[in-house]
Amino acid sequence: TVGWIQELVDLVGMEKLLLDFDQREKLSKDYYWYSPVLEPLLRDKRADAIVIPETEEQVPLVLGFAYRHGIPITTRGSGTGNYGQSVPLEGGIVLDLSRLNTVQEVTNEYARVQAGVRLGALEKLLREQNKELRIYPSTFMKASVGGFVCGGSGGIGSITWGNLWDGNVLEAIVYTMEETPRRLVISGSDLVAYIHNYGTNGILTELKIPISTKVSWKQTVVQFDDFEAAFQFSHAVAMDDSIRKRLVTPVEWPIPSFFKPIVKHLEPGASACLLETEDGTEQALAAHATAVGGRIGYVIPSDLYHTTIGLSDFTWNHTTLWALKTDPTLTYLQAGFHPVDFPKQISQIKAEFGDEVLLHLEFMRSAGIIVPAALPIIRYTTNERLYEIITFFLSIGVGINDPHTWRLEMGGRGQMDAMLAAKRANDPHSLLNPGKLQIPAVQETIKE
Ligand code: FAD
After folding, report:
1. What's the CA gap between 249 and 238, in Å, rounded?
2. Start-end of H helices in 277-358
3. CB-CB contact of 276 with 238 (8 Å)
4. What angle do CA 168, 170, 173 make, to 5 degrees?
5. Which residues form the FAD-binding PCMH-type domain (predicted)?
6. How far apart are CA 251 and CA 273, in angstroms?
7. Is there an atom of ligand 1 within 6 Å of 316 CB?
8. Which one of 87, 302, 330, 367 is separated from 189 by 20 to 30 angstroms, measured CA to CA?
C-alpha cells in the first residue's frame, strides 16, 4: 500500500473512499478496450484509491492534499469515454464525481448542474418541463455532464446545434491543482481550454449549459440499394432547414445487420439512414427518399421516444459497439470529411479498401456548416495496417481524430495553445490526469 492512504482516510472518511482491489479496478476503467491498440496498454492501470466527494467543498480539500503529496488525480464522471481518458496512467487517486449530482437551476435558456449529473436524467427532467437538451452523446443514459464536456464532442442534436465548441457550454466552475486550489468561474471563449481536455488542467464541479424547447421526435429508418444513395439522401435532409432534426446517420450495409435488437425491422442488404425528425416531417422525408430511390422503413412514433431502445442507440459510437458485439475484430476511426467533396473521398476510400472499411457518417453542423463526420468501421488486422489506413485518409484530405491514443495532442480536437496555457497556470506539477497532455518544458524543469 502507498504511504498516504491513512492520511487520506483521516481527511475524507471511509464512506467517501474505495480501496478494495475490485472497486479500484472497476473505477479505473473506461471503454478503452474499444481499441485493439489501447487494450493491452491500459488493462493493468489502476488507481491506488477512489475518492467519491459528496459536496463541492470536498473537491479542493482532496486536490490540496494530493498536491502536497505529489499524488496524480484522474477525474471520473461515468467512465464511458472510449480512449482511456479516465484511466489513471500513473495510479494515484481517481476522483469520482458521480455523487455531485444536483440539478441546481433550470430556466428557459439554460440548466446549471453539478458535474456528476447524468445527461439521461437531465433530459428526462427537462422534457417533463417542456424543454430538452441541445446535444448529448449516444451514451447519455450513463454519461455525466462533466464527462461529456471534458471527454466528449457531440452527438444527438449536433445536426442542429453543433458540437461542444459551438456555444453548447456557457460556464464552468473549475478547481485548480495547487496547494490552495483556486475556484475559477470560466465563461465565453476561455472555455476552449476546458472543453475535451480530459480534466488535465482543472476539475469541473459545475456547468451551465444551454437548453431548448421540447420537440416531438419521430424516429425513422430509410433504406437504399447502395450507400451512395443513402448519403445523398442524408445530405439533402441535413441541408433542408424546413426539417427540424436531431439525428441524420447514414450507415453502409452490412452495418445495419449488426443492430441485433432491431434487425428484424430492417431490409437485408440495404444501406440505411437513421433519423430523428419532428412529427409532421414525414412527407418531406418521403420526397427526399423518392428522389434517390430510398424506401421509408421502420418508424418509432414520437410517443415512444426514450421509452424503448431508440435509433440513437445504434448511432455515433454505439454503431461501433454493435459492430464489436458482432465481430470483435472490428474497430473504428473518427474522421472528418470535406463538406462538399465528401462523395469523391468516400469513393476513393471504397476503391482502396473495399469491405475493410465500412462507412458510417454522422451529419452535423460544425461552426455553422453542415459536415459529414464519420466513425467508419475498420476490419482490424495489425497496428501497421490501421495506420496505413489512417495515412490514406489523411492523403485524400479526410481529417482524423485518432481514437487509438489517449494523448490529447494526437487524438484530441480542442485548442492546444489554450489548453497548454491553462495547464501551466492551473496544474504546475502536472498532476492532473498525467500522460494525457504533455508540457515538455515544464516537465524538464521539474526533473532538474
Ligand atoms: P468519463 O469517461 O468519466 O470522463 C471523460 C473524460 O473527462 C476523462 O478524461 C475524465 O478524466 C474527464 N472528466 C470527467 N468529468 C470531469 C470533470 N467534472 N472535470 C474534469 N474532468 C472530467 N462521445 C461523444 O461525444 N458523442 C457520442 O455520441 C458518444 N458515443 C459513445 C458511445 C459509446 C458506446 C461509447 C463507449 C462512448 C461514446 N462517447 C461519445 C464517449 C463518451 O461516452 C462520452 O463522451 C461521454 O459524454 C463521457 O461522459 P462520462 O461521464 O462517461 O465521462
Report:
1. 10
2. 282-291, 317-326, 342-353
3. no
4. 125
5. 43-214
6. 6
7. yes
8. 87
Burial class (CB in 10 A: 0-12, 13-18, 19+), 99: middle
CB 94 less than 6 A from any atom of ligand 1 = no
- The predicted structure's pLDDT at residue 416: 87
Quick one: cell of 292?
434517390
pLDDT at 442: 47
Tell me, letter by letter, the H, E, C secondary structure of 55-99: CCCHHHHHHHHHHHHCCCEEEECCCCCCCCCCCCCCCCEEEECCC
C-alpha cell at 186: 470560466
> CA 41 to CA 25: how far, in whole Å?
15
Ligand 1 atom nearest to CA at 318: 34
> What residue owns the CA closest to ligand 1's atom 1?
79
The 3-state secondary structure of 11-48 reads HHCHHHEECCHHHHHHHCCCCHHHCCCHHHHHCCCCCC
Q: In degrees rounded to 5, what are phi and psi of residue 265?
A: -90, -5
Q: What is the pLDDT of residues 295-320, one digit of tens each?
A: 999 999 999 999 999 999 999 999 99
Residues of the chain with confidence (pLDDT) below 70: 1, 411-414, 440-448
At position 59, the amino acid (one-letter code) is: V
Short-list 399, 404, 397, CA closest to 378: 404
Q: Does any ligand 1 atom lie closer than 6 A to the CB of residue 277? A: no
Structural domains of the chain in order of their starting residue, each with its CATH number: 5-96 (3.30.43.10), 217-400 (3.40.462.10)
pTM: 0.96
Instruction: Give the 3-state secondary structure of residue 399.
Output: strand
How far, in Å, CA of 431 to CA of 232, rounded?
A: 48
73-76 and 93-96 beta bridge pairing:
parallel
What is the interface pTM, i.e. ipTM, of the complex?
0.99
The DSSP secondary-structure symbol of 14 reads: G
Could you tell me the distance, in angstroms and rounded to a whole number, from the CA of residue 149 to the centre of ligand 1?
Answer: 8
At residue 358, φ and ψ (nearest 5 deg) are -110, 135
